Amino acid sequence: MESSSSLKGSALGKLVVTSGLLHSSWSKILEIHNPPYSNHDPGLQVSKKKKDSGLEFQIHREEKFTLVVFSAPPICRSSSSDSTLLHVKDKENPFPFLCSENNPSFSLHTPAFNLFTSASTSLTYLKSELLQTLKSEKPVIITGAALGGSVASLYTLWLLETIEPTLKRPLCITFGSPLIADASLQQILENSVRNSCFLHVVSAQTRIKMDFFKPFGTFLICFDSGCVCIEDHVAVTELLNGVHDSGLVDYSQVLNRLDQSMLSLADSRLIPEDVIKGIEKRAEMKNLRFDMMFKKLNDMKISMAYIEWYKKTCKEVKIGYYDRFKTQLAFPSKEFDINIKNHHKSELNRFWKSVVEEVERRPQSDASILKRRFLFSGNNYRRMIEPLDIAEYYLEGRKEYRTTGRSHHYVMLEKWFGMESILIEKERCKKRDLSDLLTFDSCFWAEVEDSLIVINQLNTTVGMRDDVREVLTRKLVEFEGYMWEIITKREVSPEIFLEESSFMKWWKEYKKIKGFNSSYLTEFMNTRKYESYGKSQ
Amino acid sequence: MAFEALAGINGDLITTSWIASKKAYQTERYHKEEAGTVVIFAFRPSFTAEDLFAPANISSFGEIKMNRVQFPCMRKIGKGDEATVNEAFLRNLEVIIDPRTSFYASVEMSVGSRKQIVFTGHSSGGATAILATVWYLEKYFIRNPNVYPEPRCVTFGAPLVGDSIFSHALGRENWSRFFVNFVTRFDIVPRIMLARKASIEQTLPHVLGQLDPTNPSFQESDQRITEFYTTVMRDTSTVANQAFCELTGSAEAFLETLSSFLELSPYRPAGTFVFSTEKRLVAVNNSDAILQMLFYTSQASDEQEWSLIPVRSIRDHHSYEELVQSMGMKLFNHLDLHQFLLDGQNSIGSWLNELGVSTRGRQYVLAALEEEKKRVENQKKIENKWPQIVKELSWIENEYKPKCQAHKNGYYDSFKVSNEENDFKANVKRAQLAGIFDEVLGLSKKGQLPDEFEGGRDWIELATRYRRLIEPLDIANYHRHLKNEDTGPYMKRGRPNRYIYAQRGYEHIILKPQGRIAEDVFWNKVNGLNLGLKQEIQEILKKSGSECGSCFWAEVEELKGKPYEEVEVRVKTLEGMLGGWITAGEVDDKEIFLEGSTFRKWWITLPENHKLHSPLREHMMDEIRAT
């Protein structure tokens, strides 16, 4: 039996052909290139915006959709493979929203980009008009042939910035257009829903040089006896890459041949078997990766339940879960403890690292949807598990975790939560019982450990220079200020005041250094006010 | 020929149905015929455009949603959306089933004498027969399936009537087997509804004139017929290709973008379709496969044949007489999953070949069966998890709950504070069960389970047990983490879909024999409490925990922080519902009245005057006396 992805490719191809969208687009492209005399097309609203640069566009308001046609002059040979590098921080970059954490910059096809920027004023006007159209539920097609199609692609990318997920997505249809994106942009779009807005019609005879510019979107590859629709860009490259063939293709003929092929019974196989196999393998990998992420979220909840319970049992023996974990690491005994470290913690870390990776691959606006979905569980995870990573870190005799030891994924999770929580965080109830609270600053224990190291240095170093001593003492004062702030903000778990905790160890040492110098914190500690900290009032 | 394979329909019955269908041409609406213990109702077809597309209907395919009150089964249970049908056909049915008609009286009489009814018809008469059968199923059969005989529906060249939900609902209720639709190979009528109304409007009246068997002026060759045929087949191809891409789920995002530019017919085949070749009859019950066959069986095998097909597409609508007459001499085969698994694609491939289906077309039909196989496998995977579900639920029921009760506050309150090791264990089990039920939910939403699964009594009962037992834990968890403060009330923002779907499944099997829908039952009950103006009360109770017994605790949590005067109606509604919930097993009365229960503690704080008239007074007093 023929493989299902080859069937899908041809079913999708047939669907595109019978949809009639190609003909609608192509006929308007012919019109802009060979304008009929005395044109009184009532649907034609903005006609001919001739620019010095030679870029033209027209808007056609049809019954079912609105069509925007771009037309550009023939491409100049010498500049056909020039590229323009755009960075997320460039002021001139019209596409900063496309950049991702992994790809902060990308390059575009220079001739298309220049045409696009040369018409930026009228294109801005067009954008607001099209957004209105999309809001009124009417779909928009943006099209063009050759370089006109490349500009249409750029324009569609630009338009997509402002399109919310609830609106209808526009469709960009190009005919035999030069590729515009480098490998970075291809990678960004590969993981984006935006990729679904591009349909590139190419004749199978065309050979495109793909050494620098790469394909994105969906390709309709037209053979004499039929066509296939392929999204997999590796396969597209395999099928079309070659020495650039400038032979002009008449797409009127290509489209007519396609119509004919719809009626014929010839079922020739259009794509080689090994290309199909590749498509299938990659599709499977991609699905797996994505499904796993959502399926595993539930397993992760189970692991979190274990660690939550671990935390609870630690509290009962008057030692916080941070210190218990640290001691257990040094002297492993119970199976439960070992399981927490080897199974639940490491599974959680692996999972969240992969989520962060997935998000970083996506363009910013897509990523934010994903971030929101994982926001609360990700934040919970960070506050619960990072202290355990810190325990491991300091047990190995290292220091300054926050600046030198912290895993990248924690930094990102914290950053996202910080950005999103501005929108969500409500006024916290003053009276709320804090016994289940996870300390807001997940690096809290690193601060305690570093401070303990400082105290240790002060106590043990013989003949310390005064300026060194001063620096270290200032560090202690800073830490005290930090402590007092998170206590008054009620952002720290009451667990830190348990008898056996590292923080209490710190306090005993600090008290000696501090002597009789009184402060908010020393009073709070000395008068045992901390015993009622976090109890519901 | 082995017609027994067609669930209770034999050759004689088909012949009788066909003869009755022909007699119906001359009637005003229908023809009735008795044959032994069977009563046959055959409906007259219509060949005017208004009877195919309701003139006042502005949608692209003349479709309309089915009325939920009249057809409570014709929807998706979980998601709740109703089936869509052709409005013109539905209006025609409504005229026929009016209680003042002779038809209605005849059906009542047949039902009274427990006679089996066969609904039949040629062309759009078949569409009426399909809807009449659904009407009979909903109005009579479902009320008492053991007493009322199963109906049968036999159609000849009928247009498609309903959408995929229509077909899904018939499958779910195990009613698909009652519907048998005969299709001659090129007959255009079963394909007409796949075309856009706008694209065929011009040529339709003429073609209908040609299709009318009582019209003597049949022309052989005709440009308008060719145009009509080409248009219908082009749209059929669009629908078939789009459906195939969706079914096999590739390039989802691009397909979605592309589809938003297309006008796609919602209609899909429902029931069994019987296609006929020279040598055999081929019965197919997989709706996706039938859709592909509707396109691929009507393609020409060479250029020469191509020019003849438009005429054949009309003539084949008149060739059911031959089909019925030659039936006895033909082989009969099932093109179904069973056969597919039995010998792969061999025999199926050769039958499709006889039907003129091209190599490529065969692959599409087989791929549709392959998808059905996946759905069956998905169901098996879920069934393999039943023992685990049962095990976890039993632990909660037989270990966790009794231990908590011994501490005089039920498992809800124990879980909410989560101080014991058992609470932790329960939390792990809660998360494990959520994983399983969410997986089922995901499959069901994507249509990756067999139709029957959603309506299966065993599954619904298990899901109900799960909902009643575990949803209180989810509610406790929600309030333990104070999500009601930062996210919103559980009922509005926190209730997982797995419980909503489970609740709807339960309501469906409880209420379907009464022909009622859950919303009506709920509001009737509320109105019975006489708490004030209907509209105001409905506004107050919108999305409150009183909608469902397993949400009892969510309502308690919402009410307990608020002054009595503000929530009087909600308190009284909750109290009014409680008795029914306890009887039905939705709420465990051994739990909620315990001394340490949040509910009891809150109830005690209510104003004396309220408590004096409360239906719970006895309960609360009893408990006090007992302790």
UniProtKB/TrEMBL annotation, chain A:
Q: Give Gene Ontology CC terms.
A: cytoplasm; nucleus
**Domain EDS1 EP positions:** 306-518
| Protein location | Cytoplasm; Nucleus
Entry's Gene Ontology molecular function annotations? carboxylic ester hydrolase activity
Q: What is its main location?
A: cytoplasm
What keywords does the record list, in alphabetical order? Cytoplasm, Hydrolase, Nucleus, Plant defense
Q: Report the residue ranges that make up the Fungal lipase-type domain in this protein.
A: 109-202
Some GO term, biological process aspect, for this entry: which one? lipid metabolic process
What highest taxon heads this organism's lineage? Eukaryota
- Name of the protein this chain belongs to: Fungal lipase-like domain
Species source reads Arabidopsis suecica (Swedish thale-cress)
Its taxonomic path starts at: Eukaryota, Viridiplantae, Streptophyta, Embryophyta, Tracheophyta
From TrEMBL, chain B:
What GO molecular function annotation could you give as one example from this UniProt entry? Answer: hydrolase activity
Record flagged with keyword Nucleus: yes
What are the EDS1 EP domain coordinates in residue numbering? 398-616
Q: Which UniProt keywords apply?
A: Cytoplasm, Hydrolase, Nucleus, Plant defense
What InterPro entries does this protein's entry cite? EDS1-like (IPR044214), EDS1_EP (IPR041266), Fungal_lipase-type (IPR002921)
Q: Where is the Fungal lipase-type domain?
A: 70-195
One record GO biological process: defense response
Please tell me whether the keyword Hydrolase is annotated for this protein: yes
Name where it's found: Cytoplasm; Nucleus
Q: Name one GO cellular component term.
A: nucleus
Family annotation (Pfam families): EDS1_EP, Lipase_3
**Stated name of the protein:** Alpha/Beta hydrolase fold
